[in-house]
């Protein structure tokens, strides 16, 4: 069986370091293994519209921003097809058929949808499209027969629901679709990077993000303002490492070679943690190191982003070609789907049979 990746992001804002460690970095790694026959990276504008129906301009503006973030992280248009969801109308058709294979109560139980409804205060007025987006996401994945979905932990319930739809489709209409697997980052700190304020999730609306496109001074300001252990008041006090955002970020970003370069007093992160826990290591010193680490990681991304910003017509061309290729691929799957469902009426005089 072919090995195919599909994943994507809603274009509702620039991407941040939470996206980076949670999924983008993994995509670039998988791209460079050369083990995948095809890789599709989708800018999910139609999904973004499910909770931004009154603000299509915001979605439109962010399509190029997200594309720039992708290219900046090292996704290579020669190796991956980057495309725009709404440019592949087959996804809508497929969703329409899948809607009949899913119950309302199953959608209501989807934990990600549940928490997003709460976060958006949608309780009394959930847009139907938003409520059904797990179905549309199953269409996104299966239209490309994706075997692998590198995504953040919050996407796990989506993949589970997608597998249920595949299973149902195949058992009702015959073996046609492929069940995907989610690929999560291996490092626990990357699974859910907290915001700089220590809140559970980095999110634009909470204003606690460090963006991939951020300038060095801004990164430094944000790192220095990070929430740490609130009980670590004086340098000599013992500090807590667990749940301390500064250390979670270090777990996510710091590599052994950073010590020789930026903090030769220590050999590795365990030594820093031990000292912090013992007492005698001030937050500012740790933040200074974290800042150096973050600057080193984000500098090449920012530089590449600026280069691509000078070549926007090329970026548009990449999206256009990617979308045309994605449409061709999805159309082939839709032919199979219609055939399996026996709604391919005009093929070979089928309607007369
Ligand atoms: N739900 C994803 C997000 O919030 C975006 C997305 C849409 C997606 N379709 C997908 C992710 C298919 C993985 C696979 O960012």
From TrEMBL:
Pfam families: tRNA-synt_1b. It comes from the Bacteria. Its EC number is 6.1.1.2. Keywords: Aminoacyl-tRNA synthetase, ATP-binding, Ligase, Nucleotide-binding, Protein biosynthesis. InterPro entries: aa-tRNA-synth_I_CS, aa-tRNA-synth_Ic, Rossmann-like_a/b/a_fold, Trp-tRNA-ligase, Trp-tRNA_synthetase. The keyword Transcription regulation does not apply. GO terms for molecular function: tryptophan-tRNA ligase activity. NCBIfam families: trpS (TIGR00233). Belongs to the class-I aminoacyl-tRNA synthetase family. This is Tryptophan--tRNA ligase. It comes from Faecalibacterium intestinale. The gene is trpS.
């Amino acid at each position: 069986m072919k090995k195919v990746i599909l994943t994507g992001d809603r274009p509702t804002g620039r991407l941040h370091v939470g996206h980076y460690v949670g999924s983008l970095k993994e995509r670039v790694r998988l791209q460079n293994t050369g083990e995948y026959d095809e890789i599709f990276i989708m800018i999910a504008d139609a999904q973004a519209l499910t909770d931004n129906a009154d603000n299509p301009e915001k979605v439109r503006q962010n399509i190029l921003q997200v594309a720039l973030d992708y290219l900046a992280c090292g996704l290579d248009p020669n190796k991956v097809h980057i495309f725009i969801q709404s440019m592949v109308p087959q996804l809508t058709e497929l969703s329409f058929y899948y809607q009949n294979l899913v119950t309302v109560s199953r959608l209501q139980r989807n934990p990600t949808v549940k928490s997003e409804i709460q976060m958006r205060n949608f309780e009394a007025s959930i847009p139907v499209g938003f409520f059904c987006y797990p179905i549309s996401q199953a269409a996104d994945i299966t239209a490309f027969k994706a075997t692998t979905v590198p995504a953040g932990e919050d996407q796990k319930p989506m993949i589970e629901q997608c597998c249920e739809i595949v299973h149902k489709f195949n058992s009702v209409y015959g073996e046609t679709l492929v069940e995907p697997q989610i690929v999560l980052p291996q490092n626990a700190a990357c699974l859910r990077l907290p915001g700089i304020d220590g809140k559970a999730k980095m999110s634009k609306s909470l204003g606690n993000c460090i963006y991939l496109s951020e300038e060095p001074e801004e990164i430094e300001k944000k790192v220095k303002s990070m929430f740490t252990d609130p009980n670590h008041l004086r340098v000599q006090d013992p500090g807590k490492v667990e749940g301390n955002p500064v250390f979670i970020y270090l777990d996510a970003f710091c590599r052994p070679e950073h010590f020789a370069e930026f903090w030769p007093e220590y050999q590795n992160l365990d030594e820093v943690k031990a000292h912090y826990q013992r007492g005698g290591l001030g937050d500012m010193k740790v933040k200074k190191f974290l800042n150096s680490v973050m600057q080193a990681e984000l500098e090449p991304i920012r530089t590449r982003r600026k280069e691509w910003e000078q070549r926007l017509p090329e970026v548009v061309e990449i999206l256009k070609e990617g979308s045309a290729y994605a449409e061709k691929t999805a159309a082939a799957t839709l032919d199979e789907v219609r055939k399996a469902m026996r709604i391919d009426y005009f093929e070979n005089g089928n309607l007369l049979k």
